[in-house]
Structures are given as C-alpha cells and as structure tokens.
Amino acid sequence: MDAIVFSEKDNVATAVKNLSKGEEIQLNLENRTLKVKLNHDIPFGHKFAVRDISKGSEIFKYGEPIGVATEDIKIGDYVHVHNVSGRRGVRRYTL
Fold first, then answer.
1. Boundaries of domain holding 43
2. Share of the chain above pLDDT 90, in %
3. What is the pTM for the complete model shown?
4. Of 14, 12, 36, 55, nearest to 4 (Cα)?
C-alpha cells in the first residue's frame, strides 16, 4: 500500500511512504479501485488529489472538509499549504 483514502467524499489521499513524480498509485476505496498518476513528488504523510478540485472548492479528508483550494488542483497534484487554505478548527457544532 502506497497511500490511503478513507471516504467516498474524500478528494485527497495520504501517502504512507515517500512517493515519486510519475508513479501510478493504486488506491482501494470501498468496492472500487482508483489509479492516480502523480504529477509531483509526495512526501510521507502528505496529500495528493484523487480527482480534479476547482479553485474555491472544499478539500475533503476522512470525509470531513479540511480546507479550500486556493487554485485549481489536478488529479495527481500535491495538495499542501501552497494550494490550500486551511479550515482547522472552523467546524461548527450544534447541540
């Protein structure tokens, strides 16, 4: 296993080892397999797009929004602080 994705809502996967530009990563998501060719090197623990994400769209990891794309992000692109505005701690809970 090279990377993990947790939810059908997720548009990013997390590398579980250092990955190299040009590698084709196979991901298992519920009952289907995704194949993603990387456009950049992805360090261990960092994210890459598993589908195209438009500027202004939410980034989902673990089925939860974690930020907003500050530019268009293509499938296989490195997803990090250079193209995401974080939303950590912004969730609103109702009782």
1. 3-86
2. 81
3. 0.87
4. 14
